[in-house]
Amino acid sequence: MQRRDFLKLSSLAFAAPRLRAQAPGQMAMPSAPAAAPPGPPADITLKISPVTVELAPERILSTIGYNGMAPGPILRMKEGKPTIVDVINATDVPELVHWHGLVIPAEVDGVDEEGTPVVPAQSRRRYQFAPKPAGSRWYHSHAMAESDLHKGAYTGQFGFLIIDGADPGQYDQEIFLALRDWEPFFTTQLMDTDEQGQVDPMPEKPDVSKMNTNANGFEVTSITYSINDKSLGAGEPIRVKQGQRILLRILNASAIENRRLALPGHKFQVVALDGNPVPTPTAVETLFIGAGERIDAIVEMNNPGVWILGETADQVREAGMGILVEYANQHKTPLWKAPSTLRWDYSVFANAASAKAPDHTIEMLFEKIPSGSGKFNTWLVNGKPYPHENEFVLTQGQRYRLVFRNRTDDAHPMHLHRHNLELTEINGKAISGLFKDTVVVPMYGRATVDFTADQPGLTLFHCHIQNHMDFGFKALFRYA
Ligand SMILES: [Cu+2]
To answer: Does the pLDDT of residue 191 top 90, yes or no?
Structure first.
């Protein structure tokens, strides 16, 4: 299949029309947003406004960010401590700030579909909540983008949010790495690398005769990448000393694509997934991180040199998705070496025992209707794009199992808001103890997650690839 032929990427992509990095309407800042609300001062103030990002000296982008930068500031909150965040929206479009991975009420979750009020254009709004659980979370725009690649999660509106209270163990340095693609554009070519090196069983692969043979519609891709706000080679290296233990907090802040990372000569001891400590911390050579996911990993610095930590796909790494790791007193040419395996398997970090049986099981079948050239594909959950009226109704206190059946040729990072998911099966392998908020369901694969319905209110479930979500790949859970 051509989508696997990633080598085509560069020639195709450069031929595609380039879009301007800034919608003209969003440049204007005609008036100051409304005055601060009465009441106690905010703990955190976030201002949404146009920003520039200098990926490299000759590569400066214009986008929308928080507090004059992209990524936004690294926020820290204390688990359970009531926190006030004032959001000032100095743009001309309504915005929503979503606190990804937090178990908080729908009114402050930052999701229009759940009924969170928007932060109006040129105005402000106060979010107030007691953040939980502890761990690596993040915050980002939850505005719809649809055909506008200068909106929502395509912009620089993202940042780390650490809820203090979890113990990641002993480390000498804490390093934040947000993976990002920039200057997105539409293409009908599927060009991701999700399945590289995977040997998954594909239990949901439909019979060829049942596959929709329409031509593929628009997908979103990009050709400019960074880690945080710098492309490979442009920023400061991660400076380390031999013998140090470095805690990497990695976030895939992409609205577009899942990613793989490696650091030649070293292994990643994965200690937490989506901010939640894993039952079986395990050293791996390659990380796979879906859009929206986080991985916390400890790396022991025991191989002096200057190394490239980067995307395993050469084109993506060479186009910016990497950062140097430089040992003290080493000034060699930075070294990249492909890892011996690209394989990723959630189950190595889990308990081998099965989870206890849930009270209810809900099957969720994912399909894509290719639209043909020049249109947007439609994404279906149980045969329908969003909205689903009363199909996903929860009873408070009951335990639910969601069975994801992915009948599409793409791996989807599926995110459930405001609840803690336990991954209980991946491609037929039963596991337990792995708590996540976003689970990548492999191409033609299957995953099951369990959760307790203990957060009344509307709850959005969606693919974290913005284009998929915007064109049908979401559903609302409601409580009876
Ligand atoms: Cu998707």
So the answer is: no
CATH for 2-166 is 2.60.40.420
pTM metric for this prediction: 0.91
CA distances, 351 to each of 271, 274, 329 (Å) = 14, 17, 42
| Beta strand ranges found along 153-198 (DSSP E) | 158-164, 173-182, 185-187
**Does the pLDDT at position 70 exceed 60?**
yes
Lookup: tokens for 460: 């959005």
Cα 368 to ligand 1 centre (Å):
9
Q: What is the pLDDT of residue 22?
A: 38
CATH class of 360-479: mainly beta
Which two structure tokens, joined as six digits, stand for 306?
A: 């200057």
pLDDT, one tens digit per residue, over 394-446 is: 999 999 999 999 999 899 999 999 999 999 999 999 999 999 999 999 999 99
CA of 416 to the centre of ligand 1 (A): 13
pLDDT band at 391 (very low <50, low <70, confident <90, very high): confident
Question: Which residues in the chain are classed under CATH 2.60.40.420?
Answer: 2-166, 174-184+222-344, 360-479
What is the maximal distance between C-alpha atoms in the chain?
A: 63
The CATH architecture annotation of domain 174-184+222-344 reads: Sandwich (2.60)
CA distance 479 to 100: 21
300 CA distance to ligand 1 middle (Å): 34
Tokens of residue 99, six digits: 């606190």
Q: Which two tokens stand for residue 74?
A: 């690294």
Dist. CA 444 → ligand 1 center (Å)? 12
> Is the pLDDT reported for residue 235 higher than 80?
yes
Q: Which strands sit side by side in the sheet containing 322-327, from one edge to the other?
A: 238-240, 322-327, 306-311, 259-262, 286-289
